[in-house]
Amino acid sequence: MAEITGGELLLKCLHAEGVRHIHAITDGTYMMVVEALERLGEQLDMRLIVPRHEAAAAHACDAYTRVSGQPAVTMACAGPGAANLLAGMMCAEAEGSPVVAITTTRRSDIADAYLQQGGMQVSRHLEIFKPAVKWNGMVAHWQRIPDMVRHAFRVALSGRPGPTHILIPEDIISQRGDDTAVTILPPDRYRLTTRVPADPEAIRRAAQMLAEADLVNIHCGNGAERSEAADEVRLLAEHLGCPVTHTIRARGIIPDDHPLCFHPTCMSRIAANGQADVVLAVGTRLGELNMWGRPPMFGEPDKQRLIQIDTEPTHIGLNRPTDIALIGDARAVLKQLLQALRQRTAKKEAHAKVAEFRALQDQFDQELNAALEDTARRPMLTGQILKACNDFFGDDAIFVMDGGNTTLWDIHYHVARQPRSVIYSMNYGHLGTGLPYSLGAKLACPEKPVYCVTGDSAFGFNLQELETAVRNDLPVIILVAVDGAYGMEKSAQQRQFGREAPWFGHDHAPVRYDQVAIAMGCHGEFVETVAELRPALERSAAAGKPAVIHVVVDPDANVDPPGNWLWAAARSGKM
Fold first, then answer.
1. CA-CA distance, 558 to 535, in Å (whole number)?
2. What residues pair up with 99 in beta bridges, in sequence order?
3. Distance between CA atoms of residues 554 and 551, nearest Å
4. What is the DSSP letter of 260?
C-alpha cells in the first residue's frame, strides 16, 4: 500500500493509454501532475511539452494523432487556460482527431457549481466545452480518475474519432489516496482495440455490385487515412481497373502519380465522380467540399449507386442516399471486399474512361506547370515554392498546409506520395495551425523531415511557437509566402463587390519573418526569386534547428490562385 496524489494517479492512467507527451503550460492548479511527471517521466517515457499558447497545444495534438494514428493529450489551467484551449479543441472536433483535453478548475468548494459566489478563474467549463467535444465530464472523487480517463479515451476512439474533455478540481489532483483502492487497466481490457469488419451479407452484396459495375469510382475521405487503408485502396483499385479520387484530407492515400489517382481539384476528379455507375465512398460523409455528394459533381442518385464504408452509422446516407452500407473499419472492410471480389471476377484492365480522365489531368498539369515557367519573375508565384519543395524533400517528408489562398496553391502544386503525409485543417479551415501542426508531426515522427508552406497572415496567429520549437529541439522548416495581406479576404471582396476597398483592413504592415525567427533562436532566410529557394532550403535543413524562409510572392497573382473558382463554387453551393 502507498499513498499517491491525484496527479500521479492521472499520470499513470495516461501512461496505460500509451501517452508519451502531455502538452500543457504549467499551472498551480495541476502542480501535482507536473511533480509526478518530473519524478516519473523518464521511467514512464513521458515528456511535458510546454507551448506558448494553449490553442497551439491542441493543434499540435491534433497533428500528432493524424501522423501517428494514436490519441494525444493536452492540459490547461482553470479559467483563461481552458478558454485559450477551446479554439484548438473545436478544430480537432471538426477534423475528427482524438485529442483528450484535461482542464482543471479551482477547488471543489468554490468551483463551477458555485459560480455565483464570484470565485477567481471559475467559469462554466463543462457547458463551454460541451459543444466542442464528443463527450465531457467532471471528476468529483479521487477514486473516479481512472474511470473518467478510460471513458474519455473510449469515446475519443470510438466511431468517428474526436476530442473529449475531462474537468478535474485542483483539490482532487492534490488529494492523496491509497493506490490499491483504484484499478488501472490496459486499453484492450476495457475498449475495442481491434479493427471491426462489416456484415458478411452486406459485403457479399457490395462485392457483387462492384463486380457487375461498368465503371467504379473509389472516393476516399479521412476515414480511409485514419484506418491506414492505403494498400487496400490501391489493391482494390488495381483489381477493378478503376479511378481513385479523394478529399484534400486524404491526400497521399495512394500516390498522386499513380495512374489511377486523380487530383481533388481537377476536372478529372469531377468526371470520375460523376460518370461512375458505382461510387465506393470510403470514410467520407460527402460534405460541402464534395458538393454533398450530389450533382453536378456526382451522378444522379437514382442512376448512380453508392456503397458507403464508415465506422460511424450516423454518417450513412447523411448527404446522399446509400444503396449498401458497410459499417466497420475501412481497412478491415476493404480487405473483406477485395477477398470477395477476387472470388467473383478476375483482375480487370484499366477502364477506357481512365485514359480520358488522365488526358484531362495531363492538360491540368501542363497548365499548372506552364504558369511557373518564368523562374526569373520577381515577385515569384506561390506555386514556385511548392515546386522547389517537391524537388527538395523526399517521399517520406510530412507536408503541412496553412492559410487561405496559400493553401489553394499548396493543394494544386504539392505532390503527395505517401499516406499520412499531408496535414491541413480542411473541415475547419483554421488559420494558424501550420506551425503547431508541424511541431506535433515532428514529435510523432522525429525521423522524418517536416515542412510547412503557409501564408503570412496565418503564420502570424501562432508565431510565438517558434520559441517552443527551439526549446524542444524540433527542427521543422516553415516557408512563409508573404503577400502582405489577408489574400483570401481580398479574393472574396473582389467577388462580392468587384473592387478592393481600403477600409476592408486586409493589408499588413511590412514584417521580415526571417529576422523575427532569428531573434527567437531559429535559422532565417529571405528569398525573392526561384533561384534562391533551393540554396535556402539546403541551408535550412543543414542548420539542424527550426527554420523560417521568408518568400516574397506576387500579391496580385495571389488574389486569384488556382482552383479559386472551385472553392467559390463549393462555398456558394453553385457549380
1. 24
2. 72
3. 10
4. T
Q: Using CA atoms, how far apart are residues 62 and 71, in angstroms rounded to an integer?
A: 9
**Shortest CA distance to 409 belongs to which of 490, 487, 505, 461?**
487
Distances in whole angstroms, Cα of residue 452 to Cα of each of 42, 69, 365, 403, 509 = 31, 20, 22, 11, 23
Strands 164-169 and 99-105: parallel
Four-point Cα dihedral 183, 188, 189, 192, nearest 10:
120
Report CA-CA distances (Å) from 217 to 80, 130, 207, 268, 394: 48, 38, 14, 12, 29
Cα 569 to the center of its chain, rounded Å: 23
Dist. CA 128–CA 110, nearest whole Å: 18
C-alpha distance from residue 77 to each of 83, 144, 170 (Å): 9, 20, 9
Distances (CA, A) of 76 to 39, 56, 175, 326, 327: 20, 12, 19, 39, 36
Q: What letter would DSSP give residue 292?
A: G
Going by the DSSP 8-state scheme, the letter that residue 17 receives in this structure is T
DSSP structure string for 171-215:
HHHH-EEEGGG-----GGGTS--SPPPPPHHHHHHHHHHHHH-SS
Q: Which three cell numbers stand for residue 218?
A: 473509389
Q: DSSP state, 370?
A: H
Residues 6 or more apart from 214 whose CB is under 8 A from it? 277, 351
Judge whether 209 and 307 are in contact, CB under 8 Å: yes
* Separation between Cα atoms, residue 381 and residue 378, nearest integer Å: 8
Q: Where are the beta strands (DSSP E) in 263-370?
A: 278-282, 305-310, 324-327
Under DSSP, the state recorded for 525 is: E
Task: Find cell 503547431 and name the residue.
Answer: 436
- Residue of 112, 353, 308 whose CA lies nearest to 214: 353
Distance CA 272, CA 261 (A): 10
339: which residues sit within 8 A by CB, 6+ positions away? Answer: none
At 446 the three-state DSSP class reads coil
What is the pLDDT tens value at each position of the chain, 575 positions in all? 688 899 999 999 999 999 999 999 988 788 899 999 999 999 999 999 999 999 999 999 999 999 999 999 999 988 889 999 999 999 999 999 999 999 998 666 666 655 555 555 567 788 899 999 999 999 999 999 999 999 999 999 999 999 999 999 999 999 999 988 899 999 999 999 999 999 999 999 999 999 999 999 999 999 999 999 999 999 999 999 999 999 998 999 999 999 999 999 999 999 999 999 999 999 999 998 888 999 999 999 999 999 999 999 999 999 999 999 999 999 999 999 999 999 999 999 999 999 999 999 999 999 999 999 999 999 999 999 999 999 999 999 999 999 988 999 999 999 999 999 999 998 888 999 999 999 999 999 999 999 999 999 999 999 999 999 999 999 999 999 999 877 777 777 776 777 766 667 778 888 999 999 999 999 999 999 999 999 999 999 999 999 999 999 998 888 888 877 676 666 666 66
Beta strand pairing status for 72-76 and 99-105? parallel
